[in-house]
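protien #1 (seq + structre)
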Amino acid sequence: MFSVKAKKNFGQHFLKDENIANRVADTLNDFPTLPVMEVGAGTGMLTKFLLKREVDLKVVEIDNESIVYLKEHFPELEGRIIEKDFLKINFDDYFDTEFCVIGNYPYNISSQIFFKVLDNRKQIPFCSGMIQKEVADRMAAPPGSKTYGILSILMQVWYDIEYLFTVNEQAFIPPPKVKSAVIKLTRNNREKLNCNEKLFKTVVKTSFNQRRKMLRNSIKSLLSENSPLPDDPLLTKRPEQLSIEQFEQLTNLLEPLTRQTNKEES
């Protein structure tokens, strides 16, 4: 069955456990009629369960060897294989409605995949699949956790994230050096941030770049030279202690004092 050789440069680890593949496919049960885009179809272990769902399915695969394999073993995929890099796809070329994203994601670009989903969140109400356990832990981490950070906040702003289950290395060919996890992301009700979104991202990233420091020290680089630090209790905390709402408050607090704002005013 595994005539396709896993390639390190594509971050490939082919799932061989049918039970796990079926459980991953079942994460779509809350959105049974929406079109589906599978990322990194590989040898089709997940694909065959997605085909049973009888929805508009597109599969994305960049590896020529995998593409040949899929065409030979799944003739029903005729016209459904997108032979491109997922990160460079224009979704409007394939769907004119909302759709779900699912996959056994290439581990070397998993974070980039989720940030692309994030950038297209109006089209993608749901995303699920397999990633490194470490990345899943970070995405689902609550405030106060050691793994809570930039990825946690930027994803949780727009999606409710649920860590479903852990998958051992032996479920793959070749076995990865890390454990994996299945997660699902469901679009929440937030329509917009209560602050400047661009500055919010900058504040979050700057804060966690020095996560062991109090915020009054880590965000100094954002302030213009003539702007003193405000006297606010938020600045006595470390970034992992702040909720999304508190980061919104912090962004509003800092906006009139930042270099970015002063440059725009001048």
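ok now protien #2
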Amino acid sequence: MLLSDKSIKQELAQKRLKIEPLDASCIQPASVDLHLDEELLLFTGSTPFIDPARKDLANLLTKAKATQEQPYILKPNEFVLASTLEFIGLPEDIVAKLEGKSSLGRIGLQIHATAGFVDPGWQGKLTIQLKNVGALPIKLASPMKICQITFIKTSTSSERPYGSEGLGSNFQGGQRQI
């Protein structure tokens, strides 16, 4: 069952669902708008290919910022990692999905390649994968609205929510983006 604005507000009031910070005006009829954090990770390492089996790919990344004073200009076909400004906390019986904002999609900004699903038990900022598939550069500046999140109640609580021992939940707490 997809949560409506009323259900989202109830889950927040009961402190089962966490979105911090939360501007109440960002609660939409069945989603919540999320904002871009300042830090970006750019793929700049020189390598003939990326080996996904490697655990440490940090040497391929360079940090950049996207602020109001110094926005980041995302060039056509460029791909960067970013995160939401908001910390998201899910209980064991709610999953979430990240979706793009139609206003940004219309100018060619994609907010995730394949990682739009958020497991029950997730705690942390969400990594977003920004790609400009349009013909013109796009200005990115924190705290612009960057995506929206929807919430779905599961039929039962998860037996092994994200972060459980043995799952290899590498990204819990938003500490690792790649």
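The longest strand covers residues 79-89.
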